[in-house]
Design a protein that fits this description.
Farnesyl Diphosphate Synthase; 16 helices; mainly alpha; globular; about 350 residues
Length: about 350
Amino acid sequence: MTGVDTRPSARPTVAPPPGHPLLDLPSAVSPHRAELEAAILEWAVRYELLDDERAREKLARTRLGELVARSYPTIIPSRVEAVAGWFTWAFVIDDCYEAWTGRYDEAAARTMGVLTRQPARDRSDTRLEAQLAAVWHRLAADMSTEWRLRFAQHMGHFLAAFKYEAVNRRTGRVPELLGYTQLRRASGGITPSLDLLQVATGREVPALLHEFEQVHTMFNRTADVVVWVNDIMSLRKELAAGETTNGVLVLAEERGIGLQEAIDEVYELVARQIDQFEQAWAELEFVMHRWHGLEPGAVEAMRTFAGGMRSWMRGNLDWSGLSDRYQVTDGVLLATDPSLVMPTDRGTR
């Protein structure tokens, strides 16, 4: 990078400035926080996903159940185990890919295959695939075909992004802003996480309503807010790890500015994204009020979905300040075993 100080020792201010609209979003926590933490650890232990005791301690300090409790504050008890299981899988595979290089397309195809088959376990499954299979059939049990297809598509985007992040990491290349915006929305795993709002609350938005232009805008702006704020909070960790796919670095490189200036610009961007979200919601309420034949249950499901997206934007911020995942740059990953990703690995680590 040209003229940008990226030393991990630099300590820019990462909190949003006073009066930022992110701080006006409601902050809430599910009463099932302890159950979520316990379920996450149980999934990891049952399927032997963690490297060792240090990794187990890292998972505990990550406070992943806190993230779920803040992002899904109205989660119903019957959905706690399944949603916790998906987040266990997502954080483990994210760390796996940080330590693994290999046949990305083949590995992604194997994972996607888990979402399209019957519940029975395939003997060739990796432990991580077996865990996902168990989680997926709990998540999808009561959901429509349209929801399943949407979730699968977002999962595919999430898995594909690992390959491109690895290329940037290997070459030390900082992506350009326009391309980065598209890649980051996929790589953060936020889009399937937002799909899970409808699982967690037991209120599915009808497929046609979900395709309204305003809903797409709200969904994308929520995803963008979460990943851009995540880039600020994870900056020190990613600098220490040699990660280059980070929005703060992208802006610093593109604008030729320092890290603190780039962080300030990111928060200005986030403020505009929240404003776009609220404008789209106001338009959607207007449309729904005049949409002949739209049932009250559909309107309530959409309101619940909108509230959940606000919870995600604020919950991610609150959790980031509590979790050791970004506060402590100890280099410990939850999992680095290549056999979690592929049964036999001919790649290199």
